[in-house]
Amino acid sequence: MHWALKLLLGLIIVAALLAGGLTWYVTTSEQREPSRQAYSEICAQCHGASLEGTPQAPSLALADLRYGDSTDALITSIRTRHESTDVNNWQTRYSPSMIKALALYVSEQRQQIPTISASHIFTLPQGTINSRHHAFKVEHVAELSRGPYAMAPLPDGRILVSEKVRGLSIVDTNGQQGPLLEGTPRVWEEIVQVRGSYVGLGMMLDVQLHPDYETNGWIYLSHSDRCQLSCGSAWPVSMVRVIRGRINRNQWTDTEEIWSVHKDNYTVVPDGVAAGRLALDGRGYLYVTVGGKSTYDNLHVLDTPYGKIHRVAEDGTIPEDNPFWQPAAERTVASTRHTVFSYGHRTTQGLDAHPKTGEIWSTEMGPRGGDEINRIAAGGNYGWPLYTNGLDYSAEPITIGQELGLDFAFEETIAPVVDFTPAPSLSNFTFHQGDQFPNWRDDLLVGSLRAQTLYRIRLNDGLLEEQEKLLTGLGRIRDVEMGFDGLVYILLEHGKSGSLIRLVPLSSDVTE
Hints:
Radius of gyration: 24 Å
Shape: globular
CATH topology of the largest domain: Neuraminidase
CATH architecture of the largest domain: 6 Propeller
Helix content: 10-25%
């Protein structure tokens, strides 16, 4: 056999082995998760493999645990109420972080938070849902094509939908998804799909109507702009970019660039952490989220766009009262300091303005634990990666901040208004408005990905007053929006497709 043919055959075999190994590593990672294995080793023989309990120990799946079910209560219980337990001397073998990971595992199982793979299963709830304040039903509106990310209900009852690897389309009032709009920025096919999630560069992201859309017709659209050789790169790179335009029939027109960054800030980090969420505060400003689409050492460098929320005027001009604004002559050509509004964010997957105050609120994904709902303050430092309630996925403490040499006091950061530990993978949300569910007015309706749950959050003077799970087991909720009809619309991704559903009140009666 010719040596070149042998070399080619050898490379094919090596590539096949690497691909097989990578597939095995990814598909078995959830089963190999350290706290799951630790629970099986030291807890399951007494409390049962599924927390169901045994004659030796009670069930951990009960609605009420004797010593409490918060993460802190579970940690205390594991540490202090098992001192006499000697399963291969486990107390000396497991670190405090692993004990916390065990508590998180128990809490995740109690809340029936599925694995990432299982979170892609879509189930349409049937019958009457009796929540704390309203009874409602769930209606299926439309079946969608691939990878939905955001939606914007239109005044005439149609709904704009963005799909990460397809583009922008309109669902009509009969629930039929139309063809892709022409003239929108190009999007690219995913590089690979891992456990149902798209990994790629060059995706469509958020879509939002201008508060005066019925007068001016402006629609704001974010996407991850992709380039390669034109960026001086040997491989594809991308970065969040925001435009606005109008729709004429099925054509995107009147395009204006609203926010973008220098090509030096484009990276090969996949767009799954790009975020690109948009919010208009009704006071003339647009806010844009950018996730950790770079190494974490850049999240606290104000001249870079990553891990920050940016603010510009609705027409793309830069407000000189931005907290870190500098004139062009005083900053480098690639600097984004002048648009930074807040920093120290991980992946801000949700953004909205309070309908009365105009204050900007966000949802932020933590690692294993530490999802947050934040009120965004001008110039605020939100702490990541030095401070978090979460753990690394290896069940070790988050030490990235110390390793990067970050040094600021916790008191200098802005703590979350609501902490979600364990983390449900919070996504986008809306402040409820309208008369269909009057007792939810101004409450946050918050989606989640892995937990497949729609949360209702009530705030009082900026503090948590009430929290409720309205729906669970839906599928991965990408977006939640109010329709012009006063109904709540929910955008779901599941596997390679997606769905659009809505909540419909059964009557005007209030349930308590």
